[in-house]
């Protein structure tokens, strides 16, 4: 089920899964562009599911 859900996320043009790497995985975050009927119909973005590797604190990635 997780693989199918992840594939759905990757296939959605309004979602981006961002991965930070520097000699290994530092963290991930999901960026979602949301359509909007207010504010002149300008879309807005949501940052969700911020996650960082435990070993990333000493490698330049700020804590959430």
List key phrases describing it.
3 strands, extended, 64 residues, alpha+beta, Aminopeptidase
CATH-assigned fold name: Aminopeptidase
Question: How many strands, what sense, and barrel or not for the largest sheet?
Answer: 3 strands, antiparallel
Tell me the CATH architecture. 3-Layer(aba) Sandwich
Q: What's the helix count?
A: 1
Ranges where pLDDT stays below 50 over 5 or more residues in a row are none
- CATH superfamily membership, which one? Gcn5-related N-acetyltransferase (GNAT)
How much is the average pLDDT?
84
- The total number of structural domains is 1
Q: Write down how many β-strands occur, each being a DSSP E stretch of 2 or more residues.
A: 3
Notes on the protein architecture:
The protein is an alpha+beta fold and 64 residues long. It has a single domain (2-59), classed as Gcn5-related N-acetyltransferase (GNAT) (Aminopeptidase), CATH 3.40.630.30. 16% of the residues lie in helices and 41% in strands. It has one helix and three strands. The protein has one helix spanning 2-11; strands at residues 15-21, 25-34, 44-52. A three-stranded antiparallel sheet has the order 1-2-3, with helices on one face. A hairpin with a 3-residue loop joins strand 1 (15-21) and strand 2 (25-34). The chain starts with a helix and ends in a 12-residue tail after the last strand. The mean pLDDT is 84.
SSE layout and pairings?
Elements: H1 2-11, E1 15-21, E2 25-34, E3 44-52
Antiparallel strand pairs: 1-2, 2-3
